[in-house]
Amino acid sequence: MKVGVLGAGQLGRMLAISGYPLDHQFGFSGNSNEEPSSLLGHMFIGDDSVNSLVDFADVITYESENTDVEIVKKIGKKVTVYPGEKSLFITQHRGREKALFDQLNIPCAPYQIVSSEQDLKNAVNTIGLPAILKTTTEGYDGKGQFLIHEKSQITKAWESMNGAESILEGFVNFKRELSLIAVRDTNNNHKYYPLVENTHHDGILRLTIAPAQAIDPEVQKTAEHYMQTLLDEMNHVGVLTIELFETNNGLVANEMAPRVHNSGHWSIEGANTSQFENHIRAITGQPLGDTTPTHPLSAMVNIIGKIGNIDTVLNMPNAHLHLYDKVERANRKLGHINITANSEQGLNSSIQQLQAFLPNEATVLTHHNL
């Protein structure tokens, strides 16, 4: 089957790598022939790239929740698009996302939409402080966010939004950040990966541990229940990710992504079927693959800003290097390293070895103890 991808970044790249063994072909709509996916299939660039992709593809998917929903509606009249416009419409706006959580009785932080500084003042009085101000659309890796500790910061916080519609969310006192990745096919079959633990630094994901340790089976069941209601409500086909806070009072939903996700990259070597392969299986009508981990523990370390000495990683027998063919730039995701291990001690030892490969990550990795 010919699979079209709106976008040509590293997610499209890894989708193609996982899909070629299943005898699929890939096409991408992008901005240049220098993007990570450009050598992995047919590359369509220029003003007519989307139309060319539609002519090429039997089915189309998208890399980002920031994809123009009107484009998806338009091309959906000619070729099937998964996950579909409803998932995209909801997840690209934080207010609609939170409203869906409320509708489905999924706990989330108190929130209020604000469109002016006065709105923000009123919201602060209602929700209290600390609280986080975010743009309702776009924004990723910590961008478009301002943590407000005291009322004297309100003006500065609003100015940082540049007049964009925003959402104020009450601060959640959490123990750790988790995420759950699942996949649903066209026949309403569901598969779930284990909850994973995520460590962020400056708003960017740096480290994922899979499965998250010391998770009560009931917590996994609760997360899967939330996920199933979301998948079914949106009639979502493909991979869906939900980021969660683990608190003393249970799980609190943070946000969703209607796509394969950075916190699921560990599954390439760490699960029987990766998130990428399962997304392709789902949207092409193939049976979903088993999501059971292949090792007791896995980790994913993001390569941020600078690549470093590749040989250090290649000399580690349990490490797997994935580079995205991107130019080095501050805070840019250039690749990731997957590690598999049979024990907590072994995994932690491997993570520490990567300090030589990622000198700027030393503080983050040193402070993570399993």
Q: How does this structure look, described?
A:
- With 370 residues, the protein is an alpha+beta fold.
- It has 3 domains: 2-81, Rossmann fold; 110-170, ATP-grasp fold, A domain (Dna Ligase, domain 1), CATH 3.30.1490.20; 176-366, D-amino Acid Aminotransferase, Chain A, domain 1.
- 30% of the residues lie in helices and 28% in strands.
- It contains 13 helices and 18 strands.
- It has helices spanning 10-19, 49-56, 69-75, 85-91, 94-103, 117-127, 154-160, 217-233, 267-270, 275-283, 310-314, 344-353, 362-366; strands spanning 2-6, 25-30, 42-45, 59-62, 80-81, 111-114, 131-135, 145-148, 166-170, 176-184, 190-192, 196-201, 204-210, 238-247, 250-257, 297-304, 319-323, 333-341.
- The strands form 3 sheets. Strands 10, 11, 12, 13, 14, 15, 16, 17 and 18 form a 9-stranded antiparallel β-sheet that branches.
- Helix 1 (10-19) crosses helix 10.
- 45% of the residues are buried.
- The mean pLDDT is 95.
- Its EC number is 6.3.4.18.
- Pathway: Purine metabolism; IMP biosynthesis via de novo pathway; 5-amino-1-(5-phospho-D-ribosyl)imidazole-4-carboxylate from 5-amino-1-(5-phospho-D-ribosyl)imidazole (N5-CAIR route): step 1/2.
Layout of strands and helices, then pairs:
Blueprint lengths: L1 E5 L3 H10 L5 E6 L11 E4 L3 H8 L2 E4 L6 H7 L4 E2 L3 H7 L2 H10 L7 E4 L2 H11 L3 E5 L9 E4 L5 H7 L5 E5 L5 E9 L5 E3 L3 E6 L2 E7 L6 H17 L4 E10 L2 E8 L9 H4 L4 H9 L13 E8 L5 H5 L4 E5 L9 E9 L2 H10 L8 H5 L4
Parallel strand pairs: 1-2, 1-4, 2-3, 4-5
Antiparallel strand pairs: 6-9, 7-8, 7-9, 10-11, 10-12, 10-14, 12-13, 13-16, 14-15, 16-18, 17-18
Helix pairs in contact: 1-10
